[in-house]
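Retro notes, item 3 of 5
We never archived the inputs for the zinc ion complex last cycle. Fixing that now. Sequence and ligand:
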Amino acid sequence: MRGSSMLESLQTLVLQARPYGEAHRLVTLLTRERGIVRAIAHRAQLQHNQLYAPTQELGRSLLQLRLTGDSLATVTQGTLLDNYTELRVDMEKLVYSSAVMELVLNVDRSGGRVSSVDLFDDVIAGLDRMRQSLSPRFVLAHLQLSLLPCFGVAVGISDCAHCGAKLERSTGFSFKSGGFVCADCAVRSAELRLITLVPGVWRVMRQMTERRIGQTGRVSLRPETEEQISALLTVCLRDYAGVSLRSQRVAEQLKGLYDQPLERNQECAEKERLGDA
Ligand SMILES: [Zn+2]
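Structure as it came back at the time:
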């Protein structure tokens, strides 16, 4: 395609939008047909411009792009299909949506091979599930688990990560062996750097690997189960793939803030003082 260009209409999710010059916008798009595409949208920073809405971050749009080989594409036309209002007005959901988009940008950086159709469909399904009030932390965890292979990480769930025995249940996760371990291996806790599992975590994670986020129905997890699943996946991504999501840290901080009982906040607030110099 060197020297020539072609126009294509693509289904996109705008992962990132940055001002460029005085009026232009640089966008990073997740497209269903071509994976990640970077493009410039001329004059899209101007509110009356027809590209202003369809190139906003966290918007699903049908964009017409002029593609020119390896260089930056150009957005020539756009129609906004969904701007996820329900996610934008809820601070927790908004921060988790950002974490999902950050995760996808990391998949791209890692060079991991993944079908663009599957990635696009899973991310869109995840955002839809967040909107339908599925826990945003669970949605992120499900996407983290399904994308682990893209980062070259394989977490053993069906077989013991240490001895290879078939697992019927598991009570421990070994960071040394990179997966769940059987009851026999679980006694070697210190040697295998074992985390003792909250009951239910292994079973739920196995179910998560068996279906995609769009195929998951109603989810009812105890907070401690969801918390440990989220923590395990976060540590796996960090330790095995070097990926740490800034938005997820913000989300956890927000959660900590909301989860503090009001009386305790009040009690702490009354002790706050600034001393005199
Ligand atoms: Zn074992």
